[in-house]
Design brief:
With 476 residues, the protein is α/β, with parallel strands linked by helices. It has three domains: 80 residues, Udp-n-acetylmuramoylalanyl-d-glutamate--2,6- Diaminopimelate Ligase, Chain: A, domain 1 (3-Layer(aba) Sandwich); 225 residues, Mur-like, catalytic domain (UDP-N-acetylmuramoyl-L-alanine:D-glutamate ligase, 3-Layer(aba) Sandwich), CATH 3.40.1190.10; 141 residues, Protein-Tyrosine Phosphatase, Chain A (Alpha-Beta Complex). It has 16 helices and 22 strands. Strand 17 and strand 18 form a beta hairpin. Helix 15 packs across helix 16. The two termini are 41 Å apart.
């Protein structure tokens, strides 16, 4: 974070200094919401969460080196008192960002692919100029401002993952950090239960277009009809924004960035020809060999390449960096070949019907000629569509000829029944109640060269299974 005084912070957040805090006290280290992450010169913001109240750790934060805390509760410590610490965090982030006029803000949203695209962008842009990107999935009203506050005078690119679980969420985030370049990946069924329908999801995602700065660039997935339709919003309310489109369609179809000559190798990785074509430049092509697993990673790579082109990086450099880019975040199509011959595909960080179907397709490809296992748990936040969606996934397991299916948790029977109805042998389908039971089944039945996929929403807890399966390899 840039150096900033207590008086300036108070002015930014509309807060009141306690007597123990002098106005010229200067903060220069990161702003955090976990007292265990405090470093000397930092700021601690207290949140009253469902399980932990940060106000209990005000003293611990000061003892750890924080120069001040931001609190909703009265305290005798060096503090700035506010009515709402969440709003204060956002207002502080906006103030700091406004002092960094040379930063290019890049916002990424979509029902799936945000984190992977963010990770690709980090690897494309950081060799070019100083770049800040979120750690993990810091994409909400707390994580986004914390990422913004990591930027300083040296930062050239600020990559922000922007998530939404309702109308108005992206409006809030773009008010904190209006993007110079925005990316909308897709409109899918993630969180459909919270939104109330696919149309509401599209409306929420479109807020990133209208939240992009005047004169900025909006990058849209031309293969997603709901996203492509957002182009009409680019010049809304007198704003002028450039629209770029990426697509897996054939060359010459009017898209700016496309993928041609796509081939998927036995490890599930795509080789393609990256094509850039726009009025501002002549047609250019370059070869890309992705290190990411799954054909569903191609749109994410095209989105990242579009941003790279938009900020002026040539296509050869973009292609070379894309080819070297690795998965950076845990539980997202991370492939581990264990010493015992078992291959673990850990995609357990999150799940929805679209991403789970894509992961099953990757499992079938990588496991061709081998015995395959799908270990699937609940996809959360699907509302009234939950039962049908889990039945759809069960049928998808069978239709892709997966050899073994472990269905975990309360939704297990509905997935299992659908798989059997689709033609999977009953003896190949196992329902278990929890992660420990799934692990026990695998320990007793895995054979050399088996390939297994672990996937569920984060709240379902299968990420613990993914970790255990990989730790088993690391402990050998």
């Amino acid at each position: 974070m840039i150096p900033i005084t207590a008086a300036e912070i108070a002015d930014a957040v509309g807060g009141e200094l306690t007597p123990a805090l002098t106005p010229d006290t200067r903060a220069w280290a990161p702003v955090v919401v976990d007292s265990r992450e405090v470093t000397a010169g930092g700021v601690f913001v207290a949140f009253a969460g469902e399980n932990v109240d940060g106000h209990q750790y005000l003293s611990a934060a000061i003892d750890a080196g924080a120069v001040l805390v931001i609190s909703e509760q009265e305290t005798s410590l060096p503090a700035i008192l506010v009515d709402d610490t969440q709003l204060a965090l956002g207002m502080l982030a906006r103030t700091v960002l406004d002092r960094l006029p040379d930063v290019t803000v890049i916002g990424v949203t979509g029902s799936v692919g945000k984190t992977t695209t963010k990770d690709l962008l980090s690897q494309l842009l950081s060799p070019h100029a100083p770049t800040i990107a979120p750690v993990g999935s810091f994409n909400n009203e707390i994580g986004l401002p914390l990422t913004v506050l990591r930027a300083d005078e040296k930062t050239s690119f600020l990559i922000l993952e922007m998530g939404a679980s309702g109308i108005g969420h992206l409006d809030y985030l773009t008010n904190i950090a209006p993007p110079d370049v925005s990316v909308i990946l897709c409109v899918g069924r993630a969180h459909v239960g919270e939104f109330g329908g696919i149309e509401a999801i599209a409306q929420a995602k479109s807020e990133l277009v209208t939240g992009t700065k005047n004169g900025g660039v909006t990058i849209l997935n031309g293969d997603d009809a709901q996203v492509a339709a957002m182009a009409k919003l680019a010049n809304k309310d007198g704003y002028q924004r450039q629209v770029m489109r990426f697509s897996m369609a054939d060359e010459g179809s009017g898209f700016d960035v496309t993928a041609q000559d796509i081939e998927i190798d036995p490890q599930g990785r795509a080789h393609l020809t990256l094509v850039a074509d726009s009025p501002a430049r002549s047609l250019s092509k370059a070869s890309v060999q992705l290190q990411l697993v799954g054909a569903h990673q191609i749109p994410n790579a095209l989105a990242a390449a579009s941003v790279s082109c938009a900020v002026g990086i040539d296509i050869d450099t973009t292609a070379k960096r894309l080819s070297a880019a690795l998965p950076l975040s845990e539980g997202r199509m991370s492939v581990t070949d264990r010493e015992d011959g078992v291959t673990v595909i850990d995609d357990s960080y999150n799940a929805n019907p679209d991403s789970t179907t894509a992961a099953l397709e990757a499992l079938a490809l990588i496991g061709e000629g081998k015995r395959t296992w799908a270990i699937l748990g609940e996809m959360l936040e699907l509302g009234d569509e939950s039962v049908a969606a889990h039945q759809e996934i069960g049928a998808a397991v069978a239709s892709r000829n997966i050899d073994r299916f472990i269905a975990v948790g309360a939704v297990g029977p509905s997935m299992a029944d659908a798989a059997i109805e689709q033609g999977m042998k009953p003896e190949a389908v196992i329902c278990v109640s929890d992660v420990d039971s799934a692990y026990e089944v695998l320990e007793q039945n895995l054979e050399k060269s088996d390939v297994l996929l672990v996937k569920a929403s984060h709240g379902a807890g299968l990420w613990q299974l993914g970790k255990r399966l990989v730790i088993k390899q690391e402990a050998r």
